[in-house]
Structures are given as structure tokens and as C-alpha cells.
Fold each of these.
Amino acid sequence: MIRLWLKQILAERYGRALGTAIGLALTVALFCTLGAFVTSASGAMTAHAVASVPVDWQVLVAPGADPMAIAQAIGSAAPPKELQAIGYAESAGFSAVTGETSQKTGPGKVLGIASDYYDRFPGQIQLLLGSLDGVLIAQQTAANLHVGPGDLVTIERIGASATQVTVAGVVALPNADAMFQAVGAPKGTAPQAPPDNVLIVPMPQWRTLFAPQAARSDTVRTEFHVRLDHTSLPPDPSAAFVQVQQMANNLEARVAGSAAVGNNLAAALDTARQDALYAQVLFLFLGTPGLVLAILFTLAVAAAGADRRRREQALLRLRGASLLQLIRLAGAEAMLVGLVGIMLGLALTQLTTLAWLPAGGAGYSLVWLPLVALTGLTVATAAFVLPAWREASQSTVSAARAQVAKKTCPLWQRLYLDLVCLTAAALAFWYTANSGYNIILATEGVTQVSVHYEAFIAPALLWLGSSLLWMRLTRLALGPGRAAVRIAIAPLAAGLTRIISASLARQHPRMAHGVALVALAFAFATSTAVFNTTYNAQSRVDAALTNGADVTVTGTATHQIGQLLADLRRISGVADAEPMMHRFAYVGSDLQDIFGIDPTQIGKATSLVDAYFDNHDVGRTLELLRQTRDGILVSEETVSDFQLQLGDTINLRLQDARDHQYHVVPFRFIGIVREFPTAPKDSFLVANASYLAEVTGGSAADIVLMRTVADPSAVAAAARTIVTAVPGAKVTTLGETQALISSNLTAVSLYGLTNIELAFAILMIGGTAGLVLALGLSERRQSFAVLTALGAKRRHRRAFLWSEGLLIVAGGTILGLVAGLGLTKVLVSILAGVFDPPPETLSIPWMYLGATVAGALVCSAAAIMIVEAHLEEPDLEMLRSG
Amino acid sequence: MTEPLVLANGVTRRFRHGDGVTNAVLPASFTVRDGDRIALIGASGSGKSTLVHLMAGLDQPSEGALCWPALGPRTSLRPEQVGVVFQTPSLIPTLSVLENVELPLLLAGREAYDAALAALGVVGLATLADKLPDDLSGGQAQRVAIARALAVCPRLILADEPTGQLDQATAALVVDGLLAFVSSSNAALVVATHDRTIANRMNTTWIMEHGNLHVAPAEAVA
Ligand SMILES: Nc1ncnc2c1ncn2[C@@H]1O[C@H](COP(=O)(O)OP(=O)(O)O)[C@@H](O)[C@H]1O
Ligand SMILES: [Mg+2]
């Protein structure tokens, strides 16, 4: 019997079975693709985190411990790929004599490294000037001492006489924070700032230099720098974090207190696992509505043939089929459709993941196979077996037609469930937004990460409430708002406006469902797209702050690039280039960056926004700075640290270019600055360049900011050829910086996610429009035959279809777009943690939304035309036989 | 004498299906004129509906000549001049009774409301104007279908078993309505039926037998 039934399905009802299978395929594919994205995003984040760490472990050998034993213990705890001993020695200070002046620094550090350290641990030391063969000096130290390659520097040893070395090269230490961390410091102590003064000496020379200092064992230490074997790390950042942490624990247990591990790799993975969790939460927030939509769509397709299946089932019952048999038949149908849908869905997933995931990402979707299969079969069962059971268990074979709505409105509408949901969503949102929480709580170093899942309540209620509200609004539009509907369809209705609008009003459940489905699809596409664009815009803001301008040229303290300004301005595609001074100033004992700008000109080369300043007014702040010759803008942190009041005089110590000594210079505190192009995130100062030049005896600019009107990378290339003359000068573009600093999240997948969701949304909008029109196709065919017999021309028949299509698609589009924007606003607030800095407004991707609307319209038009083609030949048969 | 409304000469209609052919109408020749009241009698499956559809211009003959000298070419026939009442319930379920009756008028671009209400009055259903087809009984629905056919004031009314699903009393009412209209407008009426009592109220009887049409000589009518 089952085989017969299935044969019949294939022969007669393949349309609906295929439609359901396609709906199911969409569900499965969306589920699988999202799953693959989450999995591959986690993997990529782990890889990203691992690659960002030049030295995985810094193992500090305790005074008196045997380094060989420690090295052996490392080998047994975690077989390393690289292992090198580094000497760290304290120095009382460095000094140098250049020309007639002599400079002296405060305490510093001298490292001893093996000659192949640069190759073994790339990224730790960057050569700026001179050669890596010999003694290297950190950039800032070189600037303080005013020395370069070939110059002599005196090292003041502790408990021994001073000694001299010759500088071979000037280097940058981009990883200084980790390099000079206090390994083994108790948890919770504030991280140590890296030393201002650093010299790096070849290991044999370092041993000779500091052998006399060995008596002071607190000033001379050995660290092992370790790179672990990364191939055995699990792809998930949390798992990788746990594994790396356990390996370190193992080592510390083995060495029993004679060494401590600075676990840089675990620290990086710790951040990554937070990002990964954010990614997962993001996918949940943005992807779940899509999944729900796909499932609803599938159920709606399956329900499209409900009338016919009801009749068939009634016939089978008359012939004596039992309830169980009916359910088995429906089950078999569900299985068949489910399997076909799952296969199609997997094929679709392969296509989408191949197109949008990085190489190798496609394999990730297979991880989700069991869950996906389960979902697919559950949905299929819900689509076939449930209605069969419900029908069969209802006693009579009622032939009630669902085409004309009953007068009563649904329970939820009478209970105002939509408004209740929306109110509850608002309350939940207000509560979450005001509780000052962070959706993801990952305490540093703690293995357990917690997610505030209650934050999902507000968006979930919002989705539910909006969907119900859409249906209510559709009913309102078709009822009391009929006049508006008539105006809307008048151009299509070919003189039948009144009748068509009345006819649509009587089919309000179908219309309401159609509008709600289309609106859901649009809200889904809109919220993802707007979220994604806002996210990218924020990462651009972040990059703009870091890079300073479209293209930025940075010189070194010894070689400034200010004199090249005229040349840089002449590059084609440069709208303007403005110089900026960058010096260091002591605020008390704290060395801070100080920027000298021309407040009237700086805005030409870089974009300053109100949010950068505490008073939220760029214009006023810059004007005040212009009027106050000795004015200075101070960062928030410094203001609170030093209890400053506006108008106070602040005495800073600045290095004079003439004698290279620090002198006290008074400034007037006129405002608080939060962010500034190229400035660090914590504390810095901004003053007038003219005043800064006057008090330091030098006006040379260290930074040139350039605004471009052409491709920034072309401008950057031209700038690079100009600055080759200046050793150590760097040219960076906004795009490069963004790629460098943007978090794992953007780097991995938001772009791909949006594309996938766009494709799904368009398909589903078109599918929904077609589906709603195809619902009750047999009844409609009869109506069309009557219409034709009564003299309806093609344009009249089309008027009915297109008016309906227009209402569903246009209504759904408008409602969906509006709701999508609202939803994104809520999402952005709830997920504020992924933004740095949080956005002030949403960025709306008009192009993308336009494309979605256009795609949806084309798809819907195609769907309407397919239905129309099905109804083209009026069927006289319908009017003949009883 | 005015031109005939329908003029058929050797008209046939064959249906092909798969391996066989059904001759629904064998060569038939006939004339329908203003004021004719014709009963088309025949068993189920004898070809009545097929013939009615041919006369209505909804279907085309396989052979023979069929024309409407007084009405114009086939394409311009409906719905202005020919009103058809179908055998099956043919009201559009999402339109009210009144809107159903208005439909042919609107499709013809004519003023609809008053004419539709008047037509409903003729079949005695003006009070049901705002009801939906699903709320009507079979007889009421068929009378609405008749009102819809009458609303355009046709010169020819073709009714395909309009009383097939009705009890005797209701059937009589429906026929009363039809006859009242044709007698006032001098329109021609063709009623396909297998009910002798209805046939008796017409003034001509055509008999359909396995696709063969037996037309009584025209002189007998006059
Ligand atoms: N569209 C069609 N396709 C095939 N056969 C048809 C079609 N329409 C009518 N027939 C056949 O033509 C014959 C006459 O049908 P019909 O005109 O409906 O008879 P009646 O109205 O007298 O019951 C029947 O045998 C019927 O099966
Ligand atoms: Mg018939």
C-alpha cells in the first residue's frame, strides 16, 4: 500500500512534494551553512590567534635553578618547535655623547639573544636602521640618546663599572608588552609597562658584559622563549586554550617552582575564544530568524495542498484505512520528501560554502550532518504527519473550504498578543540595556565562559511580536484601511479595483500569512545587512583612528619627513596633506605622546568628529585651541589621574632639539580629548604645533596625514618612492590598517554570511509570493475559468494575480524593512561588546537593500508569471462536469 | 424577419483522449432566433453541455460552420449578448452575491451596481446581495448564476441544467425567473435539461441522443 501511495505521490503530486523538498533543502542548507560558518570561523580564529603570537611561552628560570633541567622539563611537557635562552639584565641607565651634548636615560634593560633569534621568532624584532649584526638599540632609546648606527652608548651596570658598546642597528619591538612581561607575577597585578630604554646584545657579549653583575641575581635573569607545535591544537579556540593551559600547568608541576610560564599563546587564545563566542552568538542572533523563516516556508508549501490531501485521506478512510495506516503513509511521504530535501540541501550547502568559505571550510558543514538530518526529518514530519494525524482524528470528513475566511479573528489577535510581545520586548530590552552587562563574560584565564542568554529574550519577543503585528496590520489594511489598498492596486486592477480589494479582504488569512512571510524574509535580510555594514563602518572608524588618515607617512625621531611635505602634496590623487608633530612629554613621571597640530588646517587631511572630544564639538574645540597659543587637550585618563581642572596650567617636560635635554614647559589645559588620529588609546596630549615648535626649538613634523581622492594604495605607492630617501619612514593606508586590526569576526565571515542570507532571503521572498498565489490553485483555476467565460480578458485575469502579488510583496517589503531596521538597532545595543568604539548611528547599505528589493521583485514577478501560466488556459472541464 | 442568433450547419465536436475519440456532437444543423424557447433534452453524457458551450462560443467545432449572424464574430460574443448559466456551481467564492452578478458588467466596462441589483430582483434574491456564495443553498446559488447571466441583458441565454441540483419547487421558481426575463426582453432561451416538466414549459424541444441532435422542424414552432 505504501509503495502504491508513494508511486502516486511521485506521479500526481510531485509538484507539492518537490516544493516541500525545496523548502526543506533551503532550511537544511541555511542550517548547514551557518553551522559551517561558525565552525570555520572558530578554526580561523584559533589560527589567527596562534599566528599573532611570536613567542608562545616565556619560561622564566628562577634564580639558582639549573637552566638545562628546565629546558629538559619543557621538552617533556610540550615538545617545542623552537627553544632559546634569552638573557634579561637590568641597567641603571644608558648615556651617549653626540657632538657637544651628552644625553642620559633612566633605568633600562639589556637583552642577550642568540644570533638566529630573528629568524626563529620572526615578528619580535624589526630592523629600522643599520644592521642586525651586533648591538641593537630600541627606537625610542635611540631618539632619547640621539644616537644611530656606529655611535657609542654607555651602559651603567648595577654593582659593576659602566661599559661601552657600539650600536649596529635601530630596531622596533612591536611585541614589547609580552617580551618584557613580569612572568610569574601573581594574577591580578597590573601589567607592567615595557621599559622605555632597551638595548639588545649578542648572547656571548651579553654573558661577558653581565657576568660581573651576576652577584645581583635579581637584576640578571634567563628566560626560555618557546614556540610550541601547533599542529596538535584543536580548531576550537576554547579547546585550544584549555589544552595550552594544561600543558603549561604540566610544566610548572614538573619544575616545582624553579620556573614560571608566561603563557602568551593561552592569552591570545583567551581573547580568541571570546571572539569565537561572539561569533556564535552573532550567528544565533542573525541566523535563527532565517532558519525559522525557512521552516515556516516549508510548512506553508506543504500546507498548500491541504485540501486535496484531505479529500484523498477521506477517500482512504472510506475504503477502511485505519488511523495508523494513514499516519504510516504520511510518514513514508515525510521520509521520502525529507531525504530528497536533505540531499538537495547538502548539495546546496556545498555550493554556498565553496563560494563563500575559505578553502577547506566546506568540510566543516559535515560536522553538522547528524543535527541537520534530524532537523530536516523533524520538519518533514511536522509538514506531513501532523496534519494527517489531525485530519484523521477529527471525526468527520468536512469539506470546509479555507478560501473564504471566517468572520472571527484569531485568538492571539483578540488577546493583543502582538502588542503584549512588543511591550515585553521593549521592557526586556530596556532591562538588558540598563543593567550595564556584557553579553559574553569571559574572565581572563578562567576556563569557563558564560553567555547571558537572557539577552536573547528581547530580540526573540521582538521577532514574534512583529510577525503577529504584520498580520494584524495586513488585516487592518484590508478592512478599515481598504481605501488605501484600492489606491495602491488601482493602476493594476483594470477597472476591477473595488471587486478585487473586496475579494482580497475576504482572503485575509492567506494575505496576512503571505505578507508576514515576505516581511520576515525582508527583516531577516535587512537586519543582517545593516548589522554587517555598521560593524564594518565601526572597524573602519577604528582603523581611521589608528591610521590617522587615508594615507599616513610616519618618519622616525631622527629622520623626520616634514621636509618632503611639498613632494607628498604633489602626488596625484592627494586632496591635501598636513604635517603633524609627534613628540614625547613627561606628565609627572609618565611619558606620554604629544601631538602638535595646526587646528585650522588639520581637518583638511583627516576627519575629526565630535565624538573625539568630551564637549562633543570639533569646531569649538579646535577654535579654542587656535585662540589659546599654549592650549593643550588632555586625555580623560590623565585628567582624572592628575585631578586637572579646565584652565589649569600644566607643566610638562619636553626634550629640546638644541640641547637634547628635557625642560619644563607650561601649557594651559583647555579641553578633554578622547580619541585622535594616530594617537594611542589610553593617554596622550594635543597642542598647537607652532607653540610646540617654539618651546622645543624644532618644527620638524614626524607625521604627514594625507586625504586622497584617488585609490589610496596608488597614492601610498607614490609616497613610498618619495620617502625612500628617509630611512625608517613608513607609509600606511587606511585599508591596510583595517585589515591589520579588524578583529577575527570581520576577517572571517560577516561578509560571507550576508551574501548567503541575501541569496536565501531573495529566494524565499520570491518563493513566498509564488506560494501564496499558488495556494488554493485548484479553486483559483475554477474561478479563472468562470472569469474567462464571463468575458474576462487576459488583462482582467492578470489584475487579480498582480494586485494580490503587489500587496503581498510591497506590504511585506515595507513592513520588513522597517522592522529590520528596528531589530538591528536592538541587536547593535545588545551586542555592543563586538563594537569598538560603539556606533552612534546605524550604517545602512542602500545598495544592498536596493539589490534585495530588486531581487525580490524579480523573483516574485517570476513566481506570479509561473502561476499565471498555469492558469492561462481556462478549463472548460470545470464548468461542465458536476 | 431578423437575422438568426445562431446558425449551425453540420457542426461536430470530437474529443481525443489517449487511444480513443469521443464524438460528443455528431453533425448538427440548427437555427436559434429571437424569442425562441428551446429545451435541449438528453441523457447524461449525450453531449448537451458540449453543444451549449459551442453555442456560447466558449468552444470551437471540430467540423462544420457555426456563426452568429445577429451577434457578430465569435470573439466579440461574450458577455454582452450571450448569458451562460453553467452546470456546475460557478460563483466566485471570494466575491459577494452582488459582486458576482456585477462581474460580467464590470468586465464589459459597464455601469454595474443598479443593473446587478435589478437582476437579483428578477430572481427574487435582492435581499441576499451581501451574502457570500458559501452561505447560499444550491438553489439560491443557481439563481444568482442566472441573475448574473441576465444582468448584461443578453439577446441569447444558454442555461446548462440550471435545475440539475434543485428540488421540484425550487426548479420551478428558477424557470419562472428565466421565462419572466425572456418574455419581457424577447431574448432567446436554450435550456439543457433532462427534466420533462421543464421541457414542457418551453415551446420547442430538441433531443440529444449519443451526440445526435434531433431538431423539431422550425415550422412547428411558428
Ligand atoms: N473536454 C473533454 N474531453 C474529453 N471528453 C469530453 C470533454 N468534454 C466532454 N467530453 C465527453 O463528451 C461526451 C458529452 O459530454 P457532455 O457534453 O458533458 O454531456 P452532457 O452535458 O449531456 O452530460 C461525454 O462522453 C464526455 O465524456
Ligand atoms: Mg452536461
Note: Confidence is low (pLDDT under 50) at residues 218-222 of chain B.
Amino acid sequence: MNDEQPSVIRRLRTGFRNSPRGFIFFSLLPTLVLVLVFTYYPFLRGIVMAFQNYQLFDLTNVHFIGLDNFKTMFNDAKFKHASINSVYWVFISLILQFTIGLSVALLLNKRFRGRGIFQGFVFYPWALSGFLIGLIWKWMFNSQIGVINDLLIRTGIIHERIGFLSDPNWALSSVIVANIWYGIAFFAIMLLAALQSVPSELYEAGSMDGASGTRKLFSITMPYIMPTVITTTLLRAIWIFNDPSIIYGLTNGGPAGSTHILSSLMLDKIMYGGDYGAASAIGIVMIGILMLYTIFYLTVTRSEKLGDF
Amino acid sequence: MKRPLQKALKVVFLTLYLMVMAFPLYWIVITSLKPQKEIFSFPLHYWPSQLTLQNYINIIKISKFHIYIANSLLISLSAAAIVVCIAVLSAYVLARFRFRSHRHVMLGFFLTQMLPGFVALAPLYLLMSKLGLINSRISLVLMYTVGLIPFSTILLKGFFERIPSSLEEAAMIDGCSRMSALIRVIMPVMLNGISATFIFAFVQNWNELFMAVMFIDDESMKTLPVAMNSFVMKFDVDWGAMSAGTVLSVVPTIALFAVAQRFIVDGLTQGAVKG
Amino acid sequence: MAAKKEKKMLLGTVAGVLLIGVLAGCGDNGDGGSNGGSGKKVTLRMIESLTSPARTAVLQEMIAKFETANPDIKVELISPPFDQADNKIKTILGAKEDLDVLEVRDQTISEFSNNGYLEPLNDYVKDWPDYATEVDVAKTVASLGDKLYFITNGMYQRQMFYRKDWFQEKGIQPPTNYEEMVAAAIKLTDPSKNRYGFSFRGGPGANGVPDTIIQNYNFDNIDHDDSSFLKDGKSMYSTPEAKQALELYVKLYKEGSPKDSINWGYQEQVQAFTSGVTGILLQDPDAIPALTEKMDVNTIGTAPMPKGPSGKAFTATGGAGWGIASYSKHKDEAFKLIAFLSSPEQNTYFAIKTALIPIHSSASEDPFFQTDMYKTLLEMASKPDEFVNLKANTKYPGTSQWGQVAMESGQSLLLGKVSVEDTLKQWDKFWADQRANLK
């Protein structure tokens, strides 16, 4: 009371913290510091390598080579092939993961007997790591010792063993199947969470108007969960594009490079070639593609407002 | 007329779906209960000739799986908890306020999702090495936290936006500071979103392999995915151990789902929006 | 009410976990062997590459013995999973993170030495009596030029494993050369029974078999100091013999191996043999434990590696071993550890436990190596004129990429997308470029 100065300072301080600007600052600070230091800084250092001759075999000879890594990359048939594969890989996986995931979420949104067990089976693949998924499916897909061929032959569906991972006509489809199997759980759980938040008043109003189930889905449910749908499909597309682990585990890009996507090709350059320069160059192109895609996607879905882009 | 058909379709879809989803799990569980020699014997056995728990005993007794499970639990739960705490704050701010760099922050978050991680792994190792964080559990908690903040923020922001801001304004008029309004009034309503984020973060951490291999050296600090990866050897994959490990590694996640399920299901309907 | 309680519990656990997490992380860092003062306890950090849970256990047992004998030295063993191990070693070395002893392989020696990561051991072995009994092959595999970079801990050499019962059934003898092997493989193949002759590997490491056949078909002209090349300086892929050899290889895949094997790696190759899908396997001795564990031992026969048209065969001996990081602060202690692990007693024990060929000449007398699975290897070693040792070519920068290049182009060849001639041209160009660009 008689000590004026400190209380003013205290008020100033708490005032800053409680003022919108102070609150914004303090709330965002940890996030920004962490992301800048541990995500952007290492990444920028990694990106520099795209313009260098950076081969693990000879680190004494690292030097800038301008755009040579990019030139080599664009002239490489493998790169073109992997780019096309990436498109199939992302869209087929995404569309099927989403449709199945949404159907499952809609079913799970209602109470029925055995829902708990069903839910367990829907979610468990998500509890496995990508490397394990790759390993398990590689084992099951094996044409000689794998269980899928065995099952198909025993049930008489096929008579000759199928080389799911070795026949170039099958290989890409097979890795996509494994990827879909893995990714349904993500959509199911995220969309279920969104569905749970649809206020029941909306449905009650809908029922009074006599709307059918399908009508309700498209006129009430979907618009309400649209922000979640747009965000999750966009992010999921990005992740599927960027994640090499299933392909790495299942086929390693083979046979003859027929299942490489851009991210697995990049990993390949690091793991086997030790060529960080080439890998970084692919990485930069991947980011470019994703940025263009994101802008396109957000424009088409007219959701600038949603993410405040 | 339409109803029974619809119902039948639903049942067919559910059954088919369940079979496809469940079969790999069935195969893993069955393999984990087979004696070593039977796993690769032909013709394949769809039911073990003799059920054994030997694979489970081996991975606990010889491979010391309980240590790895404890490490993974500790690291995944800590990182998930920290992520939620940090992301709730930034998501709230980004949902409620418009400020000059708002757009840039959001863009910056989105961009992190596009960065192919492997390019950064070597520089990241160098950074952690300089910070003296190699071979400590804290390095993984830190990495997992950082990796998940952007997505968790984006996710939580969506949940915040569905809650009317009149809610905390009322509380602030009643004399709460913004912080306590957030914690006391908004968070309880958000519990479904928070649990979803927490589970998502937990599962990502629980499964992460590459950083765990790089940053941890000591056996006593290794995580579950690393331990499982060691069953892949030069000439052999130890499927007995691998399948038993898989079963054990799925259990905690399923348990977490079971617990958190109530929050996701009951979430908003029990919250203040309705009541 | 119940929901409220659960909410509280959740918040409680979250807070608790946070606290534990922070506490637990802090105590762990900082004891990474930085106490360099004399008289104090020295901590050595050591990393292995060819990891398996069983091998790690053996190493830990040996290290414990070393620590008992040297109470002032503590060893921290790092055992990353096998398929990530070399990458982790490279990352540690690149960051100069504390490391004293590391496992170097024939595949990584030139990369590591090129970057100055390895301490040459020539001076250390001068005062090490056991070096005298180490066999020459173990020394050459660990050297580049006149520098010794590691002390081999075990050697690999391929031999032929075959299904005795299948061969008896068909009334054929184990093959002695490549043509016989392909013929036998085709005879054994019966897709309706899911039986195939040869355990083929078209995935990682696919270059092994075609490289060996091509070398053997060029037997008289191969430059023994530069084994991908001929004495006249051309690559071995440029000859008509190479074409013959590669055609045989394609035939082996198309008629005597499972179609699926185009994408198989080491594990599938061995699994196919242990599961009774394939009848012939060419592999290193460290595959033996997987075979004896999963198969009826009486059905497994062993035979020497097939020969080429010259009636002789090149055998390549691979190896891995312990080296010292060039920036290690405790090199003397590090070598002490290596010397201990490489003594005849310890190395023989290690070799037996991990199914490798020991490095000391005395060890072959151990009864363990007289058993069926190993006697063929000894037989091959006893006829050095028939089974000529050829040092693997590891000095070129491309050595590490070659496996990948050969795998991808090889798969195109096996799928029939590219002809034998064009494949050979591609391979010839790869090696010619390597040679031209060598500093």
C-alpha cells in the first residue's frame, strides 16, 4: 500500500499478460520457439545439401554445385516414374481411406450391440508402426510362404500363386492395399470425433421436417463436419505423399523401381546411395508439389476462411 | 421395404470389413501362440497344433520387454501430455484472436507437415549432439513434442471454433482471467477434442522408430519399436518374438481407446453447450 | 458425477506423467565417457553393426569378462537394430559424437576410411602377440592399401546348402559347377507342389550371384587386385563370357526359382529354404543357426561353391571387425578391448556362438568346426588352388551404390524389360566410370 512502485509494475505485468497482445505472445511463444529451433533450423540445413555435392562416401569433398542435383534428377526416368506413382498412391489411398473411414465412423456413431469390439478392430492397425505394417504385409503377401496366397488357393479362388509384390502388374496395387488398410483408422477416429460434436438439436429439427437418412447426411451432418473433413483430407494427403515407410518395408521400390514413390526414392538415395544432395533435391521438389497442391485444394474447397490462409 | 435391405447391406459391409481388418490380427495372434518350428512349416497351420506361451515368456525373460514397454509408455505419455498443454494454448489463441502474423503462423504450421523428415535427420542429430541430448529419454520427448505441436494445434483450433466465444466471455465478466476461463470453462467442454488429440499424439509417439533408433543408445532406455525392429536380423525375422511383441504393443493403445472412448462419445453432449 | 471424477483423474495422470517425464529425462545425459584424466575410470563407447539379439548377448558376456579383468575400464555397448545400424554408425561418426570402438564391415571400410573416421591399427598390432596367429585372409579383408583398419571378428564365406532328401528323390548329385546347378534347380522345380530349385534373391544384395558367376566365367583374366576388372583394364562385364554367365543367371531365375523371389532379400531367401520351398541355397555360415533351428538337420546337405568352366572357383571372403574411431579420446584402452575380444580364446568363442569363421589358424582344430555344417568350408579352405580367394573390390566410391544399381537393373533384366546385352553395357559403363573417376 505504501509501496507504490512495485504494485504498478505488477499491474503492468499482469496487465500485459491479460491483455490480448500479451496473452497471444505468451501462448504462442513455446510453440514458435520449439518449432523454429527443432523443425525449421535442421530442415534448412538439410535443404542446403540440395545444392551441394554431398555424398556420404566422400565428405571431404562437399562443395556447391548449383543446380546439378536437380538436372540429374529431372533427367532420371526413375524420378518421372516415381512422380506418377505418387499420384496413384496418394489419391487411391486417400479416397478409399476416406470413404471407408467415413462409413465406419457413421456406423460407429450409433449405438449397437458389439460396437466396442467392432471399434477395437477398426482402430488397432493405427496402433502399429509403419515398419511393422510393412513387415507383416510383406510376409502375408509373399507368394510362396505367405498366408494370403495360401488362403486364396485353399478356398479355390485362384489356382496359380500370385506374386503380389513381385509382379509389376500387382505390386503397386498391393502396397496401396496395405496403405489403405493402415489408414482407415485415422479417418474413422477423427471423423467420429467430429460426428460426436454435431448437436442433436440439428437432427431433431431435421427429423421434424421429415428428412430421410441420406438427406440428413448430406444436408446436416456433412456441412457441419466439413471443416474437419477438409483439414483431415488435406493433411492426410500430405502425409501419405511424404511417408515412405510402408513402401520401404514392403518392396523397397521394387521390382525394378516399379513401386517407388517420391518419398521412397528419396529415402533410397539416403539409405543406399548415401547421396544426401540428390535426396534433398527430391525433398525440395516434394515440398513444391505439396504447396501447389495445398493452394489448389484450399481454393477448390473454398476454405480460405477455415484455416485463415 | 427399404429398411430391411439397408440393414442387410449394413450387416454385409460390417462383416466383410471386420474380416479384412481382423485377419492380420488373427494371424499375428495365432503366430504368437505357435511353437517356433511351426511358424514356417508347410502347409500353413491356421490353428496351432499345440498352443504355447513360450514366445511371450521369451520376450519378457530374454528380451526384457517390460523395460521397453515402460520406456515407451513414459516417453509417449509425457510427450502427448506436453503437446496437448502447449497446443491448447496456441490453438485457443489462433481460434479466438486475429493478429497481424496470424496467417504466417498458420502457414508455418501447415508447412511443417510438408517437410520430408529424412532430409533433416542428420542435421537434427548434430543439433541434439551439440545440446548434449543424445542418449536421453528427454531427447525423444522433445522431438515427439515438437513434431506433433503443429498438427495438434490445427486439430484443436477446429474444436475451439465450434465453441461459441460467448462462453468464456460470460466467465470473464464474472471475474475470471482469460487463462482461468480457458481452463475452467472451455477445457471441460473441449474434452472430446482434447482426448482425440491426446490419443493421436500418444499413438504417433508409441510407434515412432527412426528417431528412437538414432537418439537412444542404452538398452535400458530403448523404446518398443526399436526392440521390435531388432527381431529383424540379417538372415531371419524372428516371427515368434515379433508377433508376441506386436500383441503386447497393441494392448496399451487399445486400453487407452477404451478409456478415452467415453470422452469422445459423451464429449459435447454432456458439456455446457447443451446443459 | 462419474464423468467428472474421470475428468479429474485424467488431468491428474497427465500432470503426473509430465512430472515423471521431465525428471526421468534429466538424469540420463552426460555420462558419455568424457572423463579423460588418468587414474580415473575410463568409459569406452562401442557400437556393433551386424546386430541380432543373440549376438548382442554374447558380446555383452565377453565385455563383462573384459571389465572384470580391467576394473578401470567400463564399456557401453550400443546395439542398434541390424537394418538401421550402419546408418546410425555413419550419423554418429558424422556428428563426432563420442565413440571409441566401432564395427566396420567390408562394405563400409572404404567409406569410413575415406572420411578419416578410422584410426589405422598398424602401430597397435606391433605389440599385440596374437596378431601372429591371425590368418592372412582376415588381415586383407580389414585392410585398404597398406593400412589395417580393423581387427576382423569373424569371416563369411558362402557355401552350398541343399536338400539331401529332394536330391535323393530325383536321383541327382549335388552340383559342382554353375551349369549343373542350374540344371539341378530346374529338375527340382515343381510349382504345383510349391517347390523350386534355387533360393534366389533379386532384392537387396542381388548382385552377389551374378557377380560371382561372371567372375568365374572370366576366371583366367580377372585382375586379382581389382576384382571387377580384367587384367587388361576392361571391366569384367564387357566380355562374351559375361554374356554366357548372365544368360545362365536369367535361366536360373526363370526356370529354377520362384517368380516372387525377384523382390526377395536375405530373410526371404533363407526363409524359403527353411520352409521347404526351395532346394538350393548359397549362403554364409551365419545363416546356419536359422537353418538348424527350423529344419530337420538330416535333410540339409552342404557342398562347396560351384565352379566355373575352368574347373576352378573364386571364393570371396567377407568380414567385419572392430575398428577405432579416429577422434576417440581413449585409443589405447580401445585397443586393449579389441585385443581382448580378438584373442584366440574369445574370438573362437564368438565365432562359434555367431556361426562365423574364426580368425586364428589354431581355431579350425576346434571340434565345433569339424561338424557337417562347417566341414565343407574347411575343405574349400584346404584346396586354395581349386577355390581361389579373391579379395572383394571395396576401394571405389561406387561400391556402396553398386548393390542398388545391380538390383534395379537386374530386376528389369529378369522381368524381360531389358536385354542381357544392354544390362551388361550398363554395368560395364558403371564400373568403367568408377575406374576413370578414381583419384
Note: The first strand of chain A starts at residue 52 and ends at 53.
